[in-house]
Task: inverse folding
């Protein structure tokens, strides 16, 4: 769950993820977490404040699909809101939490400094804990709090180094390698990640490559590679392949 800033216009809602210079301080995060925690408990949810990041734990699974705040920032609002059988319940909860944050002292002080208020929360992820014994051993890389938590839970090796070369080097040590990367453009994604990983697939460094870009997923192996890479296709056209 992320703290975000929502700005309502005449015809649309603008979502601003609180990152970089606009990020909450540890003190602000802790103060907001206190007011959220008791309200979440009424919905059988437990808030974990791990220092400028929040994780929400539930004793039961929720049948709901979510997207990240970064995805919601650049896509249609109705497409970005939680979907699924229990989406209505989660949307109502998000509205209730938004009301709690609206006049919070933290946001009054942020407004006074000319900073966007943390006036809403954005739920995303919705994972289910699976017994470690049933999971394939993995090695992970990337500066991502959720990924670090998974590795800590299951005892997987983790590194902050998430270059394409580092990920492929891990393939010799674990049957599954997971990387969370942040590319600032499609050109950077293709040059620094896709090109070297496809070359690694061609050279038998690993058996298959699975890409997850928000709600899009693409899996290729060496047999599919010839058909997939028969001619150059810009990354933005893959969904129409």
Result:
């Amino acid at each position: 769950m992320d703290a975000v800033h929502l700005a309502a216009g005449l015809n649309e809602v603008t979502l601003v993820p609180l990152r970089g210079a606009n990020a909450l301080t540890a003190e602000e995060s802790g103060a907001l977490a206190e007011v959220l925690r008791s309200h979440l408990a009424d919905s059988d949810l437990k808030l974990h404040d791990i220092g400028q990041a929040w994780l929400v734990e539930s004793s039961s699974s929720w049948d709901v699909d979510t997207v990240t705040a970064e995805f919601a920032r650049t896509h249609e609002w109705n497409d970005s809101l939680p979907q699924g059988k229990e989406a209505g319940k989660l949307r109502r909860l998000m509205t209730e939490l938004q009301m709690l944050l609206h006049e919070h002292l933290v946001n009054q002080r942020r407004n006074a400094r000319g900073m966007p208020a943390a006036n809403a929360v954005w739920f995303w992820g919705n994972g289910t804990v699976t017994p470690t014994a049933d999971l394939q051993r993995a090695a992970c890389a990337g500066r991502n709090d959720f990924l670090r938590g998974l590795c800590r839970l299951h005892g997987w090796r983790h590194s902050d180094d998430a270059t394409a070369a580092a990920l492929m080097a891990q393939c010799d040590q674990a049957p599954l390698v997971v990387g969370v990367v942040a590319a600032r453009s499609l050109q950077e994604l293709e040059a620094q990640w896709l090109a070297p990983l496809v070359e690694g697939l061609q050279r038998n460094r690993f058996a298959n490559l699975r890409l997850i870009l928000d709600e899009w997923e693409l899996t290729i192996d060496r047999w599919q590679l010839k058909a997939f890479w028969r001619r150059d296709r810009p990354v933005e056209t893959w969904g129409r392949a």
Remarks:
- Residues 4 and 17 are 5 Å apart (CA to CA).
- The mean pLDDT is 82.
- The first strand starts at residue 2 and ends at 8.
- The chain has nine helices and ten strands.
